[in-house]
Structures are given as structure tokens and as C-alpha cells.
Amino acid sequence: MATVDPWTSAAFCTYCSRPLTRPGRLSDNRAMSVPASEAPAGDFRAKTADAPISAQRGNGSPQLATGRSAESTPPPYPIHRFTVAEYEQIGRLGILDEDSNVELLEGWIVPKMTKYPPHDSTIDLIHYLLAKLLPGGWFVRVQNVVVTDDSEPEPDLAVVRGEPGGYRDGHPSGPDVGLIIEVADATVGRDRRKAKIYARAGIPHYWIVNLEERQIETLAQPISGGPDAVYQSRLILREDDSAVTVTLDGAIVGSLRVRDILR
User: Fold this and answer.
1) Is 131 helix (H, G, I), strand (E, B) or coil?
2) Helices (H) and strands (E) in the chain, counts
């Protein structure tokens, strides 16, 4: 029996909470949900791109199965969802490391998406443009952790307070962040869903640079409503629009031409 991770539509084994299917275009790492007390030694990451992972533990490493994947039927009892503290403990134990290519979203450990050249090139471009206009006391972090009450997403870009090197003792959280930007190609659905995570954290501005639809979706004015937190303002800018403004602490500090970002 299995349950389904809402972020990836991956099926998880009810008994060991390991992933049983590979959903769509994902990275070479699978979604995982294993309580630290049950985590086997060794590497969780499957080395074969399209084979499901067996629930058998064997010598402590995942075994590749050749049979059918499990049904995505919810179990009669809840499976484990991780807290931020548990997720960080898993990292400290070495079960996950910087090569695991996962992030924590609303208690689920999910794989980050495969990176494609247009995606990475757009990140480089926005980083370059932002760095030229930010005032002192702010800088850009690229694909690094932002911590919230129930998540540790790694957004493509985050404009945060302070100076580079200033977060050695802890990741930035909502009050430290002025703007988050996600660049979406095949990930736009996931990035729109992330809006409620960022709104709950009180992050004032969130952009989705939607490469497939050639537009920038800007969200602002978060309202914290528990699980249903939303941004009150949503504006879509397309290539024929002039510019998107960068606002920090309620003041406009500059603007970027939409065409320059989507070129």
C-alpha cells in the first residue's frame, strides 16, 4: 500500500515510507520520506533513472525493483512528515548531503527538478542585473536555503539582508528576505504552489519567471492565514511590458526590464 506526495505525485511505501515510483521529469534523485530512526546506512539515491525502488532493505541500500509500482492508495494511518529540525538532523547525520538534490516542502522531502540551460542562464542573468541595483545591506543568494516553519526551500534567487558570509550560523528566514525569485520551465505548477510557503513566512515579494509562457508573475502583500496563506497582489508582466520594480522594505530601489529577463 502507498500514499502520494502532493509535491511530486510520487508513491511511497506505507511500511518504510520510501518512494516507489518516479514521477515525470525529475532529477536523478528520488523523493524520500523516511523517519530518522528507520533510516538505513548508505546512500538513498537510486542510480538507475527509471526503475522504482523496492521496499526491501537488504544490506541497507535501496534495491531496484523490476515489477509494477505500488498503487497510490492512501494508507489507513498517516505517514511521517518531517519537521525542519528533523530534516536538519538527517543532514547532520550524513543521510542527506549537498549532493542529494532534495528540499523540504511542507514536511515532504522532495527532489529538485532537473536543470536545463535556459533555466540556469536566466538565473545567471537575473543575478547579474539585481547585483547592479541593490543598495547596501542587501545581497543575492543563489539556490541556497531559506527556512520557514515547515519547509526549507532552495529558491533560485533570494534577496536577503546583510553581507555575503553572514549566514554561517543559520539560514535566513522570512524577516531576512526581501524578494524570492523562482525560474520556471517545467516547474511552474510547483513554483506557484510554493507561493503559500513564502506567504506564510511573510516574504513580501515573490516572482515566478515563467519561461514557457514568456511572462513574469509577481506576487506581493502576503496575508498569513495558516495553511491557506496567500498573496493579495498578483501581477503578470509580459515581454511587451516595460519593467518589473524591485521593492525592499517598502521602497522601490530600481527596476529590471522584462524583455532583458525573458530574452
Assistant:
1) helix
2) 4, 14
C-alpha cell recorded at residue 110: 522532495
DSSP for 60-124 reads: TS-EE--SPPPP-PPPSSPPP---HHHHHHHHHTTSS-TTS-EEEETTEEEEPPPP-HHHHHHHH
Domain spans, the chain: 1-113, 117-262
Mark residue 66 as left, alpha or beta (left: phi above 0; alpha: psi -120 to 50; beta: remaining).
alpha
To which residue does cell 527538478 refer? 113
DSSP characters over 222-243: EE-BTBT-EEEEEEEEETTS-E
CATH architecture of the domain covering 117-262: Alpha-Beta Complex (3.90)
Amino acid identity of residue 229, one-letter, is A
Closest residue by Cα to residue 119 from 67, 176, 186: 186
Q: What would the grid cell of residue 135 be?
A: 543598495
Are 230 and 210 contacting, i.e. CB atoms less than 8 angstroms apart? Answer: no
CA distance 19 to 34: 9
**3-class secondary-structure state, position 125:** helix
C-alpha cell at 29: 534523485
**pLDDT tens for residues 71-125?**
456 667 777 889 999 999 999 999 988 788 899 999 999 998 888 999 999 999 9
The DSSP secondary-structure symbol of 36 reads G
Q: How does the average pLDDT of the chain come out, rounded?
A: 78
CA distance 204 to 184: 20
